[in-house]
Amino acid sequence: MLGNNRVRFALALVTTATAVAVGCGGADTTATTTTTGTGGSGMGGSTSASTTASSTTAASSSTGGLTCANDEGVVLAVTKLTFGEGNSGQWKKFGFNLDNLVSTTASTDLCKPNSNALTVVPYPDGDDGIDNSFGKNLLPLILSLYPTLVADSNAGIQKGIFTVLLKMDCLPPTGDVTGMTTRLFAGTALGSTPKFDGTDKWPVAPELLGDPMDPESSTIRFHNSSVTGTMYDAGKDATFILTIPLNTKTTSTSVKLTLYAARTTMDLAGDRKSATSGRIGGVLNTEEFVAEMKKAGALLGLCESPLFAGLLTQARQASDIMADGSQDPTKTCDGISMGLGFEMKEVQLGAVGPVTPIGATCN
Q: What is the pTM of this model?
């Protein structure tokens, strides 16, 4: 069914220090939005990313005692996304151990399964307790409906259709730094093929700006970012916005998701103008996720379809954690853990781009 409609599926996560976006199919003229990325090699709980909303821009920024002009700082853009796809349990290495548990089907300290799911659905965890039920349960389902999702997403980035931008204010060329502020931006259509050599001036989506006329005024700021050696860490306990623009030949919509209790890290190059082994892990609130999926259902004319109702049930059954990243055996799981990987290269912050469309929804 989805194949008959040939949807452009663009996913972007708001990440504390990294952004993840996905754009698929369709023409190159549609801009995608929002957020952050992640992924990388596995192991459990690393650091988290804390996010603070702010609608003002200052004349200067301060990082670990270093003060610099507001327009100074390294800007990196997502160049590649990795979802942990594969038939050999690749999902197990993407994300973080968000609840600090190594959960199995026999664990008794976990929240109760949602929608009568068997414990074998959400559990066991990935490697070293990595929480990524999205990668385990929902990604295979999505790929069965849209097999070229990953390839199309990365092609969209390479064609300049969308990306996610991170500006690390006052990042010094060498040395460790703490208390650094990082700003997150959603990159819209560049209008040309990106070079990723530091010269691309990438437009930003207005949805994440405090002042829609000021491309520097990101409302997503991580004030406790740090760099130790080559490792960038966005901070702790982030909340990330995740936007999914969807388009058919005749109409479009925008699905907005949110990741809670998120954590993000990446490995910076020696010159700090690129990054690899980026990873993000966080939690989707189950009912928020289902509500946003209904927008996609409306776009595709699937609201009355039993197949679509079954998809929503499967999404609920993938719940493996509480939405705040904790576990509570007295409550029903109301969150879906998620992990992603990404890479980044240097660009420049451009002008403000177009607003992302919002469409109808199923009842």
A: 0.79
What CA–CA distance (Å, rounded) separates 185 from 169?
Answer: 13
Dist CA 75 CA 169 (whole Å): 9
* Residue 85, amino acid: E
Residue 47 lies in a domain: yes
Q: How far are the Cα atoms of 97, 224, 227, 334 from residue 325, in angstroms, in the given order?
A: 10, 20, 25, 10
125 is a domain residue: no
Tell me if residue 174 falls in helix, strand or coil: coil
**Rounded to an integer, what distance in angstroms lies between the CA atom of residue 98 and that of residue 90?**
18
Query: Mapping DSSP to helix (H, G, I), strand (E, B) and coil, where does residue 143 land?
Result: helix
Q: How far is CA 74 from CA 167, 231, 271, in A?
A: 6, 15, 10
The answer to whether 220 and 241 are in contact (CB under 8 A) is: yes
Domain that holds residue 86: 2-97+147-284+340-349
pLDDT (tens digit per residue) in 165-193:
999 999 988 999 999 998 989 898 899 99
